[in-house]
Automatic annotation (TrEMBL):
Pfam families: Hydrolase. This is 2-haloacid dehalogenase. CDD domains: HAD_L2-DEX. SUPFAM superfamilies: HAD-like. Keywords: Hydrolase. Coiled coil: none annotated. GO terms for molecular function: hydrolase activity, acting on acid halide bonds, in C-halide compounds. InterPro entries: 2-HAD, HAD-like_sf, HAD-SF_hydro_IA, HAD_sf, S-2-haloacid_dehalogenase. Signal peptide: none annotated. Transmembrane segments: none annotated.
Length: 236
């Protein structure tokens, strides 16, 4: 295995807590009541359906930033929240300022010492660059849906990253907190690593609490994954 590619939303960054915090700060600034938890959860619930419209060909290729904004406008209208266009743009930018899970900075640095590390995400390039800079993520490369004009789980995303790395799929591993993402990668011959993020969707989370299949690696966090990979290399 020569490269590890990572899902970002949920696996690397805690999108829910980050969004809620930013909504709470906006609420104080504007002096209005915002249902921060509800807005964060409902915004994320529109994530997959919005991308599926692209995947089915119902709308032309559209980057995630623009899909997020469309979903946000719909939510604000549903909740009767009136914001001007500039503020809507600011709120949409919340996705560019997401905090990493506590294990991520050290875990990524350790993994980077021994292998190529990169994103494999549905986020667009500018979004992922901003997230990386904000969260101080030491990627070697940003692979994202925008490069291939396909959204995961389309095979073009996974195989496209392998192609650009000039590596066969069996030498590239996807690390993700989502079993479905890993299932799509493994079907294409990639290695897989599961990291549970049991509070990604809040205290009532009911999915992706545990590995659902015998993935190549299962670890509690990125630091544990790095230690496991280092041990395996020493044995080899």
């Amino acid at each position: 295995m020569k490269a590890i590619v990572f899902d970002v939303f949920g696996t690397i960054v805690d999108w829910r807590s980050s969004l809620i915090h930013q909504f709470n700060e906006l609420e104080k600034e504007l002096g209005i009541e915002l249902p921060s938890d509800v807005l964060a959860d409902q915004w994320r619930q529109l994530y997959a359906p919005s991308m599926d419209r692209v995947r089915r060909g119902e709308i032309p290729w559209t980057v995630l930033d623009d899909l997020h904004r469309e979903s946000l406008v719909k939510l604000l209208n549903q909740h009767g929240i009136a914001l001007d266009e500039a503020t809507i743009d600011r709120v949409n930018y919340f996705w560019h300022q997401l905090e990493p899970w506590p294990d991520v900075p050290h875990g990524l640095q350790r993994l980077k010492e021994h292998t190529i590390i990169a994103t494999l995400t549905n986020g667009n390039v500018s979004l992922m660059v901003d997230v990386a800079r904000h969260a101080k993520l030491p990627w070697d490369m940003i692979f994202c849906a925008e490069l291939f004009e396909h959204y995961k789980p389309d095979s073009e995303v996974y195989l496209g990253a392998c192609r650009l790395l000039r590596l066969p799929p069996e030498e590239v591993m996807l690390c993700a907190a989502h079993n479905a993402d890993l299932r799509a990668a493994r079907a294409l011959g990639m290695k897989t690593a599961f990291i549970p993020r049991r509070t990604e969707y809040g205290p009532q989370q009911s999915k992706d609490l545990e590995a659902e299949e015998a993935w190549d690696f299962v670890a509690e966090d990125l630091v544990a994954l790095s230690e496991r990979l280092i041990r395996d290399r020493r044995r080899a």
